Amino acid sequence: EDDLVKEALKTRMEGMLSGFQSDLSSISSEIQTLQQQSVSMSVRLKNRQAVHSHLSQLVDELVVPGAMIHPVTEQEFLEQLHELNNKINFAKELSFRETLACSDIQDIVDHLKIKAVTKIREFILQKIYSFRKPMTNYQIPQNTLLKYSTTTIIFFYQFLLANERTVAKEIRDVYVDTMSKIYYSYFKSYSGRLLKVQYEEVADKDDLMGVEDTAKKGFFSKPSLKSRNTIFTLGQRGAVLSPAELEGPILIPHTAQRGDCRYPYETLFRSQHYALLDNGCREFLFLSDFFMVAGNSALDLFNSVMGKTLSLFLKSMSTYVSDCYDSIAVFLCIHIILRFRAITTKRAIPALDKYWEAVLELLWPRFELILEMNIQSICNTDPQKLGVLDTRPHYITRRYAEFSSAIVSINQTFTSERTHTLLGQLQVEVENFVLKMAAEFPSRRDQLIFLINNYDMMLNVLMERAADDSKEVEGFQQLLQARSQEFIEEILSSPFGGMIAFVKASEALIEKGQLDRLKNDEAQITQLIRGFTSTWKQSVEALSQDVMRSFTNFKNGTGIIQGALTQLIQYYHGFHKVLSQPTFRSLAVRSELINLHHLMVEVKKHKPNF
């Protein structure tokens, strides 16, 4: 019985374990199924998320919000315009891929693009048309456009270029046409009003360096203006090249007229061209920024705007130059242009480079022609037709000195070799003229006085403006020194000629060892010693007074007197040396010689002090 019970329990336990094992197998199979389902769901989720990401971006790019259709403020319009520009570009990209959704929004985008283009066109054209109002300062609306440039205006024009080139071209053409007329009208009016404040009396073909002073003094001739500089003198005219005045405010013609002010041509030229430089630089930068051009395209656009104005300037310059005989005015204008060209180069604005070259091509030949006319006028001068002879500086040499110093001083900053060459030719003709004038004097003494006075005057005038090492200064210094030394010999020859001749002859014989040939000249030596001792003071005094009367420059006269007295002491020292030779040691009259040191002390008393 116990065995049956155990067998039944065993059988029951086996059944239970077998059932449990079957349940575990079923659970394992379900777990595997759930795992497979989980992996499948995860993959589907990722795929849906990826699709959602792409589709949401596509939808966002394609959807046109209401705010884009009806922007309220200017800032909102700018923001929505940027957004619209992105949608237009995105739609173009999708159209290449043949995306069907693109066709759903194409009409709306096109409509908004037309609306945006219309609004931008109206805005910019309104700004440009505002330039045309009478008495408008065009720089104010232009500056308004520039104020928008970093945020709005540049993007406006960029939007037009990208989406409606015909409208962009229309705006560009309207701007070019408007500004071309404005600049032309402004500068034509300004230039005309400037000419009304120019000096009434200007140089003509008779105002040349070699023309007599008596010319052009007829009954109906106009009186000279009080403030008018001569055409050969720089005076204060050179101030127009100083940095303060060169880039100073432009002239206001009506203000000058109210004050009855008159100006030389180069001052008007500076004001006119500084206005051109200032406006030209501003316009070039504006065109480059607003129309987004560079290089040759920017230059071509600038010439479209400023071309008529520049042609007006060149025509006006050509008219002035053809009848101008004021070489200093022309030369100052040349150097104004050279400095303005340097300014535009420093600012990296190439727009006016060709204009500067064109102006210089007008001015340089005229300056050279006027200079050649002056050279020829001096060459043709007849000294006998210039009136009474006078040893004082001649007015023609003074003209030359003033003119040459003016040109040399102006030419120092921007050196021109052809200018130096022409000045060299002018100097040669002036030197020849001075020699021809000197030859009209009967005595060599008067000839030398005339030469020294003229060389000294020209040298002093040149040294006021030119560098000490300039060719002109060095040339006249050599001429002055040579003629001064000759004059010293001339004035010493009259009172002391016998002693000087004896010293020179004796020194020559000493060199040859033939001094004994003079041992029988005791009477002459006695006469020379006693004559010098008794008359030297009176002779020196007369010599000093004569020199000071002869020379217009006291400093120069003083220098000549000092040179003469120094030369006299040297000759007397030589006289002492000759008489100390063995041939003359036995002469009793040697005791009457003046002590050389004593003579030097006495001579110093006669040196003038100025």
Protein described:
The protein has helices spanning 2-62, 66-69, 74-97, 102-129, 139-163, 165-195, 243-246, 253-258, 265-290, 295-322, 327-346, 353-379, 395-410, 417-438, 444-465, 471-512, 522-550, 554-579, 596-604. The chain is mostly helical and 610 residues long. Helix 4 packs antiparallel against helix 5, helix 11 runs antiparallel to helix 12 (353-379) and helix 14 packs antiparallel against helix 15. The model is unreliable at 216-229 (pLDDT under 50).
List the helices and strands and how they pair.
Blueprint lengths: L1 H61 L3 H4 L4 H24 L4 H28 L9 H25 L1 H31 L47 H4 L6 H6 L6 H26 L4 H28 L4 H20 L6 H27 L15 H16 L6 H22 L5 H22 L5 H42 L9 H29 L3 H26 L16 H9 L6
Helix pairs in contact: 3-4, 4-5, 4-6, 5-6, 6-9, 6-10, 9-10, 9-11, 10-12, 11-12, 11-13, 12-14, 13-14, 13-15, 14-15, 15-16, 16-17, 16-18, 17-18, 18-19
What's a quick, concise take on this entry?
InterPro entries: Vps52, Vps52_C, Vps52_CC. α13 packs parallel to α15 and α16 packs parallel to α18.
**SSE sequence, one letter per element:** HHHHHHHHHHHHHHHHHHH
Spans of at least 5 consecutive residues with low confidence: 216-229
Quick one: overall form?
Answer: elongated
Given helix and strand content, the structural type is mainly alpha
Strand content: under 5%
Q: From the structure provided, what is the oligomeric state, counting identical versus distinct chains? A: single chain
